[in-house]
Structures are given as C-alpha cells and as structure tokens.
What does this fold into?
Amino acid sequence: MTPLRLVIFGRQGAGKGTQSEMLADKYGVIHISTGDMLREALAEKEEIGLRAKEYLDAGELVPDGVMLEVIKNRFDHDDVVRNGFLLDGFPRTRVQAEGLLRITGIDVAINLEVPHAVVMERMLERKRSDDTPEAITARLDAYETKTLAAIAWLDAMGKVVTVDGVGEPDEVFDRLVEAIERRLDDPSVDDRP
Ligand code: AMP
It folds into this structure.
C-alpha cells in the first residue's frame, strides 16, 4: 500500500494530539508535530528554537518563512516519504498550506471540529507551561483568523474532511478512521499528488 499522507487540523484543546498519536499508530505513519519540534528545539537551545521562543511564549504564530524551513528540513529525511506522515500543527496559514503542497502531496486533511467555546473552557482547565490565559486566547484567535483560511484553501482543492471532535476519545477516533477510509475509497477523488 502507498504510504498515507495526512494532515490534521483542530483548535488547541480539540484533542488533536491524542488523536494524532492514535492515528499515526494505526496507519504506521510518522507523527510530525511542529509544536513539539519547536519546543524540543528550544529545550536543546537550537537556533530555530531560540528564534521561535518569543512566539511560543506569546501563543502567536511563528513566521511562515521559519516554519517552511522547519518543514522542508524535516521532509529532506526520506523516512517521511517511505512511511507516510501525519502532520499535526502544520500548516496553520494559507501560505504554509501552499508551501506544503509544493513540498509534498497529501491524501486527506482532517478537520477535527470542536467549537471555540468548548475548547476555551477545556484549555483554561489544563495547564502546560505556555498555557497562560493570554496565550490561549492568542492561539485561538490565530486559528480563527489564519488557520481557517488554510483549511478553506485545502477544502477548495478537495482535500478536507470534517469530523465532529466532541465526544469520548475512542468514539472520536472511530469517526476519524471511518472518515479517512471513506475519503480514500472515494473513486471521484484524484489520488496523487
Ligand atoms: P502546538 O503545540 O501545535 O499548539 O504549537 C505550539 C506553538 O508553536 C504555537 O502556539 C505556535 O507559536 C508555534 N507553532 C507550531 N506550529 C506552527 C505553525 N505551523 N506555524 C506557526 N507557529 C507554529
């Protein structure tokens, strides 16, 4: 089988991280979380991490040029091509979405939909070091103003399936798998790239 190339969108607090791990495991693809990559780069005091720090702290988007560099470097390693991938946290803007499709084709972009009000409440309950109320608000605002435009652009290319992300993790996972498989089986959808 050709390796699967997936993207997952979802607001912070939508359960995207958990679902991504489960999906990567099920399909044997490499889970690429740009948020994790940046946090690790910062912990290791790598240049890219230091450049991203102020944005991470503020909950703002790291500039597109920096992110495209991060993704290009990651895709230079052919494990991604051999095994397939699940991109989590990238693209987050239309410029990034366009850049991604210049680097690789994708099979399905999943839009894990959990309403703004629901994730806001969840996020204020959970605590990560960069989860100040201001950073949470900034991240959700960036999603509405920038990331929805990336989703709309990929949707116009016929790549997006929207899945209801409200519910128990196992139930949401079953919905995701069903939606992915339905999309892959759809003969009206062109395959590659
Ligand atoms: P995440 O773990 O996906 O919520 O990402 C944490 C933070 O990393 C975000 O709030 C941004 O500051 C930064 N980040 C991660 N991915 C991207 C991206 N694709 N574009 C811009 N900033 C990003």
Summary: The beta strands are 5-9, 30-33, 85-88, 108-113, 160-164.
